[in-house]
């Protein structure tokens, strides 16, 4: 029987937050850090999964009490996201066909329904899958002076979200190839696409917020409170 794996890159410094600690350790309304909320959401959907948590070697804020998984391991993160994920893949004892899902630590609003929908797609589509959201806004192309130069058609454009899930062997090959070619990829799907594969897009909820700027903390807390009030049994 195949095993489900979760990789959570959490080695970033989150400098755009302008805080005294990485954003994954900033607290939400209940004084629990973002990291703890994200891991709790993942555990709600996949309680028997194996977690690989990528942390900075000098991380002084992390506490194991925030990890709800029975089987988990800590690996050292790299300079870039792809380096952290590769470190995790190299440290895992996964079979080639095991499903590996990678989720941003700064997305604590992910829901069980979206997580399970992504898993089903990743487990059945040969090229894997990613949560994504169709572009709804008018898209503008700026010139070098930050002026609106033209309007871009938004047909077939999607915002990439996480998790993104792939078979272990495919994801490892894609990221190792990107490293060998010295190509910096910003998400796992782009590395798989570079192999000529086409991952499945799975339409996700618009409240799957990625915390990036200071005001996102209050927004994430409001989203999570609304989710709990509306669907308390599905979070």
From TrEMBL:
- Please provide an example of a Pfam family that matches this protein in its UniProt record: IspD
User: InterPro entries per the record?
Assistant: IspD, IspD/TarI, IspD/TarI_cytidylyltransf_bact, ISPD_synthase_CS, Nucleotide-diphossugar_trans
**Which enzyme class, named as a word?**
transferase
Site (Transition state stabilizer) at 16, 23
Tell me the pathway: Isoprenoid biosynthesis; isopentenyl diphosphate biosynthesis via DXP pathway; isopentenyl diphosphate from 1-deoxy-D-xylulose 5-phosphate: step 2/6
For the site labelled Positions MEP for the nucleophilic attack, the residues are 154, 210
Q: Which reaction does it catalyse?
A: 2-C-methyl-D-erythritol 4-phosphate + CTP + H(+) = 4-CDP-2-C-methyl-D-erythritol + diphosphate
Which keywords belong to this entry? Isoprene biosynthesis, Nucleotidyltransferase, Transferase
Its EC number(s): 2.7.7.60
Q: Name one GO biological process term.
A: isopentenyl diphosphate biosynthetic process, methylerythritol 4-phosphate pathway
Q: Which GO terms describe its molecular function?
A: 2-C-methyl-D-erythritol 4-phosphate cytidylyltransferase activity
HAMAP family in the record, alphabetically?
IspD (MF_00108)
Function (record text): Catalyzes the formation of 4-diphosphocytidyl-2-C-methyl-D-erythritol from CTP and 2-C-methyl-D-erythritol 4-phosphate (MEP).
Which family does the record assign?
Belongs to the IspD/TarI cytidylyltransferase family. IspD subfamily.
- What name goes with this protein? 2-C-methyl-D-erythritol 4-phosphate cytidylyltransferase
**Annotated source species:** Vreelandella titanicae
Lineage summary? Bacteria, Pseudomonadati, Pseudomonadota, Gammaproteobacteria, Oceanospirillales
Give me the gene this protein comes from: ispD
């Amino acid at each position: 029987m195949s095993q489900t794996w979760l990789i959570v890159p959490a080695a970033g410094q989150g400098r755009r937050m302008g805080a005294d600690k990485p954003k994954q350790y900033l607290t939400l309304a209940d004084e629990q850090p973002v990291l703890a909320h994200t891991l709790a959401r993942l555990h709600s959907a996949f309680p028997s999964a194996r977690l690989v948590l990528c942390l900075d070697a000098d991380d002084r804020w992390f506490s194991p009490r925030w990890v709800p998984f029975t089987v988990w391991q800590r690996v050292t993160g790299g300079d870039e996201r792809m380096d952290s994920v590769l470190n995790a893949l190299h440290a895992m004892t996964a079979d080639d066909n095991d499903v590996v899902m990678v989720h941003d630590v700064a997305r604590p609003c992910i829901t069980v329904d979206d997580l399970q929908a992504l898993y089903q797609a990743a487990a059945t589509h040969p090229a894997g899958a990613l949560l994504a959201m169709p572009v709804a806004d008018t898209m503008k192309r700026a010139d070098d002076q930050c002026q609106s130069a033209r309007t871009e058609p938004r047909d077939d454009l999607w915002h990439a979200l996480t998790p993104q899930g792939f078979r272990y062997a495919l994801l490892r090959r894609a990221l190792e190839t990107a490293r060998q070619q010295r190509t910096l990829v910003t998400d796992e799907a782009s590395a798989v696409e570079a192999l000529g594969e086409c991952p499945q897009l799975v339409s996700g909820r618009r409240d799957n917020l990625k915390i990036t700027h200071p005001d996102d903390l209050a927004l994430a807390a409001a989203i999570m409170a609304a989710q709990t009030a509306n669907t308390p049994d599905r979070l």
